[in-house]
């Protein structure tokens, strides 16, 4: 196992030569850097589109589905964000690679359900982009369970996780969550609400920890409560992390990644010990 990017993501060295990646970017420097890095790391031949017309032609010329698009906000021929709108309208998963960051712009980008955005304003930008691409291409291996008695909350979390390409199951109660976990031992992360009518998040976590350890399942508790001691109680019940609603998207995804990275590292070490 190797580590990728600056977050410490574990990367098996797998190649993704079959992935079709579109890069909508007019900068020669960045197209060269990104193309070289993705070929070197993943054996991906990136399709470069320097103008909006190039992007449209690239989509039209092939019936092969686009796995992922990387797009600048503004392209020649699409100076007002039309390229991004075009990709979103086609339901193509998109990572925005931009040198512009303002609060209003960030809110507009996230409202479009993009996969991620990476800023060009630092020397790690291409490495961060490579990590984001790798996560998207491998997240489908992770099965996440959402437990919440609110249908709206379940739908919101589910859509967020599916945007990042995770496999998602949902449960409307603690009892249903225990059922699903028993039938799906590949679930590596559970995100559970604290306040539920049948079994609250604390009790659910305690019951799970009686048979399933943190080396098999990571648990993140969530709550809309203003009681800051809930996090301490949840962690003492066997949880691995805790977040208060409303979430900030970037923090939520970071916490999910950190817990899954930790799980993979633990499992990798256990395998190495078993072989030794």
TrEMBL record:
- The Response regulatory domain extends over 20-135, 143-260
Is Signal one of the keywords?
Answer: no
Q: Which SUPFAM superfamilies match?
A: CheY-like
Q: Pfam families attached here?
A: Response_reg
PROSITE patterns linked = RESPONSE_REGULATORY
Q: Which InterPro entries match?
A: Bact_response_regulator (IPR050595), CheY-like_superfamily (IPR011006), Sig_transdc_resp-reg_receiver (IPR001789)
4-aspartylphosphate: modified positions: 193
Q: Which UniProt keywords apply?
A: Phosphoprotein, Transcription, Transcription regulation
Question: Which top-rank group of organisms is this from?
Answer: Bacteria
- Does the keyword Transcription feature in the UniProt annotation? yes
What is the name attached to this protein's record? Response regulator
The species this protein belongs to is: Rhizobium mesosinicum
């Amino acid at each position: 196992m190797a580590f990728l990017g600056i977050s410490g993501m574990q990367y098996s060295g797998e190649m993704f030569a079959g992935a079709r990646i579109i890069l909508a970017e007019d900068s020669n420097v960045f197209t060269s850097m990104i193309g070289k890095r993705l070929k070197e790391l993943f054996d991906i031949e990136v399709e470069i589109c320097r103008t909006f017309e190039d992007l449209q032609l690239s989509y039209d010329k092939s019936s092969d589905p686009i796995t992922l698009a990387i797009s600048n906000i503004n392209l020649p021929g699409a100076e007002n964000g039309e390229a991004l709108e075009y990709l979103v309208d086609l339901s193509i998963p998109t990572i925005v690679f931009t040198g512009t960051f303002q609060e209003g712009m960030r809110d507009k980008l996230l409202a479009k359900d993009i996969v991620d955005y990476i800023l060009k304003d630092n020397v790690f930008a291409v490495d961060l982009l490579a990590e984001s691409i790798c996560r998207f291409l491998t997240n489908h291996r992770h099965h996440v369970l959402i437990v919440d008695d609110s249908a709206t909350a379940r739908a919101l979390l589910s859509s967020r996780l599916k945007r990042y390409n995770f496999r998602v199951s949902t449960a409307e109660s603690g009892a249903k969550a225990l059922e699903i976990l028993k039938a799906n031992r590949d679930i590596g992360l559970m995100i559970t609400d604290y306040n539920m009518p049948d079994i609250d998040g604390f009790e659910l976590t305690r019951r799970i920890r009686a048979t399933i350890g943190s080396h098999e399942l990571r648990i993140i508790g969530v709550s809309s409560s203003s009681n800051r001691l809930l996090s301490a109680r949840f962690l003492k019940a066997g949880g691995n992390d805790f977040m208060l609603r409303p979430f900030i998207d970037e923090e939520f995804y970071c916490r999910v990644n950190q817990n899954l990275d930790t799980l993979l590292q633990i499992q990798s070490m256990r395998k190495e010990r078993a072989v030794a």
